[in-house]
Amino acid sequence: MDTYLMMRGNLVGDPRQQVAAGGLKVTKFRIAANGRRFDQALREYVDADTCFMNVTCWRHLGDNVMQSLRKGDTVLVHGRLRFSEYDDANGGGRRQSYEIDAVSVGPDLSRYVTALTRPPRELPVLPGEATPDSDEAQEPAA
């Protein structure tokens, strides 16, 4: 069973997009989140420790992230929590990391006002089917 979570944070840098081995586009970015708590000794609110999280977005979600988000934007991310272990390339031993495989990403509307636009949807062309731009799709002249 997968673990899903919702996280709110600020983009640490601009999103980066690359093509994965299977030809799918993948977009990655990193967010930072920290809470605040009341310190009884100081009698004031103080920042809690910062949590950094890597986020991965596939296909159209990644395209939309690339067009919409920039460093510093506050976002809400919902997705599957992924855990991985790997060997440190610098010989530092075994390392561990968590990341969110995003299902949805959006701006935090408590901080922003945005106008929503729907991206154009590309319909798949089936083998043997004419495309709207091909000569077969045009009506014959009378």
Can you give a write-up of this model?
The chain has a single domain (4-137), classed as Nucleic acid-binding proteins (OB fold (Dihydrolipoamide Acetyltransferase, E2P)). The mean pLDDT is 87. The chain has 142 residues and is mainly beta. A hairpin with a 6-residue loop joins strand 7 and strand 8 (94-107). The strands form two sheets. Strands 1-3-6-8-7 form a five-stranded mixed beta barrel. It is built from one helix and eight strands.
SSE inventory with pairings:
Blueprint: E1 4-11, E2 16-19, E3 25-33, E4 36-39, E5 44-47, E6 51-58, H1 59-68, E7 74-87, E8 94-107
Parallel strand pairs: 6-8
Antiparallel strand pairs: 1-3, 1-7, 2-3, 3-6, 4-5, 7-8
Produce a short descriptive summary.
With 142 residues, the chain is mostly beta strands. Helix content is 7%, strand content 46%. It is globular, with a radius of gyration of 22 Å.
Mean of pLDDT: 87
Report the count of strand segments. Answer: 8
Which architecture would the CATH scheme give at its second level? Beta Barrel
- The first-level CATH class name: Mainly Beta
Class from helix and strand fractions: mainly beta
